[in-house]
Amino acid sequence: MTDISKAGTYKLGDHTVKRLGYGAMQLAGPGVFGPPKDRDAALAVLREAIASGVDHIDTSDFYGPHVTNQIIREALHPYPANLTIVTKVSARRGADASWLPAMSPKELTEAVHDNLRNLGLDVIEVVNLRSMHGIHGPAEGSLEPQLNTLAELQRQGLIRHIGMSNVTSTQIAQGRSITEIVCVQNQYNIAHRDDDALIDALAADGIAYVPFFPLGGFTPLQSDTLANVARKLGATPMQVALAWLLRRAPNILLIPGTSSLSHLRENLAAAELDLPADALKVLNGIGSEAEQAA
């Protein structure tokens, strides 16, 4: 079995977690809507992740909606003492599977209670506020009312820590003026590197950075570059992309998601993948190629 502790650890909320975690989004049905085709397989993936040493799971009650959290509870409750469950709020699902903003104080409060109920928790370790000012990427706009709502729920003892997602540096600074921010979750990968400076700034302040879409945004040419490196290393492109992220900065925590046991094992194996200097140089160049193509 893969030793994911080789990827190192980092502080997240009250726990120090292994840097390779698991994202639960793909446990829902197609389009992250409705139940999975194979619920038993979803349960098996979660249980194997924990058995493999994963101690950080990322989820949301708007996955499904409610589906992934209910599966997590069925598979893992009562939870291991060292397990950190992180959720996010500020969206809801339409009957047509659309993603709709849900950022009012009432909606955010209801979302936190939905997460608590469906996960079977009395308190959530980390709740990320996902900005809906930009649907497909960060966009400026005050998040003060939403952050104040979560801070109040934190004072009530329903949330231990607060994070932010799909946000700009200005919004993070605003968040930190209101409450402690323990993590930031934005899109970032080898090709999509807008957050390079932000990652380094957060690392200097001891704040975790959790990238989503680790392969998103590639063009076929960039995928070919990644595939060529993977082939030479005897690894999959996803493994190489994950290993590169682990090398990028010590505060990066990974949450690759899958509904497949074989893909779970492949993803976790990235913890042991060594990237030699020549491979790292080629991979670093993918970001420059993406900038020139944009």
Question: What's the SSE blueprint?
Answer:
Elements: E1 9-12, E2 15-18, E3 22-23, H1 39-51, E4 56-58, H2 67-76, E5 84-89, E6 91-93, E7 99-101, H3 105-119, E8 124-130, H4 144-155, E9 159-165, H5 169-178, E10 181-185, H6 196-204, E11 208-209, H7 220-233, H8 237-248, H9 261-268, H10 277-293
Parallel strand pairs: 3-4, 4-5, 5-8, 8-9, 9-10, 10-11
Antiparallel strand pairs: 1-2, 6-7
Helix pairs in contact: 1-2, 3-4, 7-8, 7-10
Characterization of this structure:
Helices cover 41% and strands 16% of the residues. It is an alpha/beta fold. It has one domain: Alpha-Beta Barrel (TIM Barrel). It has a seven-stranded parallel sheet with strand order 3-4-5-8-9-10-11, covered by helices on one side. It has a two-stranded antiparallel sheet with strand order 1-2. α7 crosses α8.
Short description:
With 294 residues, this protein is α/β, with parallel strands linked by helices. It is built from ten helices and eleven strands.
